[in-house]
Amino acid sequence: MGATVEQALEQLKNTGVRMTPQRHAILSFLMNSMTHPTADEIYKSLSPAFPSMSVATIYNNLRLFVDAGFVRELTYGDDSSRFDADLSEHYHAICRSCGKIVDFDYPPLTEVEAEASRQTGFKVEGHRMEVYGQCAECARPRA
């Protein structure tokens, strides 16, 4: 995992972003979450502690974190965006049944980027890879 919550907060402060308790809670939740939550899931988890916080507040802060480079937005078709605070090079396995996303490590596919650039002339800036199937829970035979 990259930066700690404190390091991320310090960097945000240095760029003039005021640190509110809500921002701290959202960033902490994301950095400690392995589930790649949606904004709604973050809202449901944090609203008991922050009853005045709206879904719009969550979205606005997520946008701020994405723009600052602390959080990656994962978009898959029409589904809600999911957010990932793990910015290390890693890939995702996605369950087609329940939508769970699980990280897995694999050596970065830099040769694929180089080949894509060679074949297309694109200045490749990155890639993402997902594998699809059923998670262990969904694949388990039902009695």
Automatic annotation (TrEMBL):
The keyword Magnesium does not apply. Belongs to the Fur family. PANTHER family: PEROXIDE-RESPONSIVE REPRESSOR PERR, ZINC UPTAKE REGULATION PROTEIN. It holds the Pfam family FUR. Coiled coil: none annotated. It comes from the Bacteria. Keywords: DNA-binding, Repressor, Transcription, Transcription regulation, Zinc. This is Peroxide-responsive transcriptional repressor PerR.
